[in-house]
Amino acid sequence: MDSIDLKIFTNSISSTLSTKAHSNQKNNQCNEKIRQPLDPIETYNLLNVHNNYINFNIPYYGWKLFFDDEDYKNDSDTVKKIQIIISFIHRYQRLSMLLSLENLENGIVFIIDMYELYNDQIFLNEWPNFKKDIYENPLHTLNCFKLAVHQQILNSVPQENLNSINIITTLSTVRIKILNYEPIISLQDLKANSYGRLVSIKGCVIRVGHIKHLAQWIVFACRKCNLQKIMKQSLGVYTIPKKCDICGTSKFRAMLDSPLVKSIFFQTIKIQEHSNNDQNNKGSMPRMVDVELMDNLVNTCMPGDDITLTGIIKVKYTYVVNYSKMSGTNNAKPRNKISFSLYMEAISIVNNKQRLQNKNIINSELTIKDYLAIKEVYNTPNIFSLLVHSLCPNIYGHEIIKAGLILSLFGGSVECSESRENIHILIVGDPGLGKSQMLQACARIAAKGVYVCGNSSTSSGLTITLAKENKNNNFSLEPGALVLTDRGCCCIDEFDKMYKQHAVLLEAMEQQSISIAKSGIICSLPTRASILAAANPINGRFNRSKTVIQNLKMSIPLLSRFDLTFLLLDEPNEVNI
Predict the structure, then answer these.
(1) pTM of this prediction?
(2) Distance CA 441, CA 249 (A)
(3) Can you tell me where the transmembrane regions are (predicted)?
(4) Nearest to residue 364, comparing CAs of 376, 349, 378, 352?
């Protein structure tokens, strides 16, 4: 190679390297420019200009906040429904008095009583299909209520004090709670045709998950021009802008450190249906359903609570891959199967424990025949004798024991907080005297009663269990028999066969609570339940030459927890033989 060619080759390489260096320097400057945050005032101005959720040119400023897939039209059915709701709010003073900007910023819950709506003839005449719409299309109907409340509050604020950022970040969340929505259906009636419907169910909380965060609004920045745009995350689905309004690019990055990012609390619980006396359901597993709680409903219930839920039924899909072998070959062919499960997105929760504490509230589940029967029993001269003979009438005699069981089912006074109001009873006796049948009768007639057998129960089954949640390493609480029967009765048969579990009952019987410290979870759950136990002597029959403690395989501290101890003896009688 000549010296001239070598010189030209060297110059070309140096020019190429300088060009690449200049290009890299330019890209680094661009990246630094992109990473450089905008001025807060500039950010607010850009978001106001390129915001698609707030429109001050229509009567309802936040239309897109609640109806993002529907355009505003003056003569649409949605607008007519909103106008009907606004006229109802003016007549319903209990709700209109709370419509203020301060209450909305403080996160107050606006309660809508369905009895008030059904009793308002003007509302039903203007909206005759309201019951059908709230049942079949609850999400659209509730959004009409939210937009009506939202706009009524914004009308009380001067428009010069409003901007789209304030409306989105602080005034976009309208919390509505529905009360007295009927009928209350059982969990066995939840079928696939309940999808998307508004229903009310009742059950007992058996699992409470950890509290998580669910994004509602996320700010995205364009990677090219750094334009910031706020996006609503509908239904918890991660949604990014399609393209930039200035440069047209489709590449964005999330600005999670922006003060405009907004999230709400999220929690999953599981409820179980109440046990009943239906002979057809005996031997079957109790039905359960998952419930999603959001925002103000989070952390409103704990394991063992008896609650009434109103919400929307939704479907959760899961993909299952099965490997099945072909006939005549050893190769496994994957087959995908789709299974779905129903769950509820809760709108309102009513804790029945708190309702029972209020003496002014009357249970609406009683019928006229029930009131007449109660009145007839009340007019009976010797009412306590009638109640004693009505408990397990197929067992003859044992009136003293039945009287003690009746008193334990009624319990003491809740107002007296110095001492516990629950009465613990222990029945000791020979086999074949009807101890188990009396305990089963108490579990059937109690408002919250559970019957367990001692030889098949564990300490976790009686108190509380820590279960690992799916898809993560978090633990959730699953209550046992004592926690599930809070403010009820727990009937334990074969009490002498569970001597290994006697230690866990000491705190529950005296302190009326169970403390747990496992896997980083430290909590205390109430167990205000009456324990009705039945036990057999050590050798099968009671030895009169020994004391009660010597005949029982039980410690003295546990025996002292029982308020009433009854002794049943099988005395052979020649006349009866």
Answers:
(1) 0.69
(2) 72
(3) none
(4) 352
